[in-house]
Sequence to fold (151 residues):
Amino acid sequence: MALIDDIRLFAQVPLLAGLSEDKLRLMAFGAERRRLVEGQTLFREGTSADCGFVIASGNFRLYSTARDGSVRDEGTAGRGSLLSELAMITVVERKFTATATEDSEVIRINRPLFRRMLEEYPDVATLVHARIRANLEAMINGATGMAGRFA
Fold:
């Protein structure tokens, strides 16, 4: 794929949507592409995360392992999905395992690249902060709605 294709893809990612083409170009230029074959694991639950991945093509099964050893299906992710967005900002562990369900390609955005964007462009930092905050608030509201189940 060409750089312009990566820019168009990044513009569709909810966390990055609305950034100028110039800023998306800088990010795309500094990112790395990686191909995976069907059945290959992109990352494993519990490992340290130092980057996020935008899925450029293909699909991934997302799953985690419960304490009793059972496998819990966390869903699937396809083109335009951003996996491990918080890892682009801070040190976190992967919360699930991602395995390609078909030949796939991802674009790796490492933490130093993304943090540089946040530091050099305050408008990017403001936008990303607002979007992550909204995502966390939605998650908290969803968990609060389930509180009765755990009482």
Notes: The beta strands are 32-36, 41-43, 48-49, 51-57, 59-65, 71-78, 82-83, 92-93, 97-100, 104-110. The first strand starts at residue 32 and ends at 36. The radius of gyration is 16 Å. Residues 122-145 form the longest helix (24 residues).
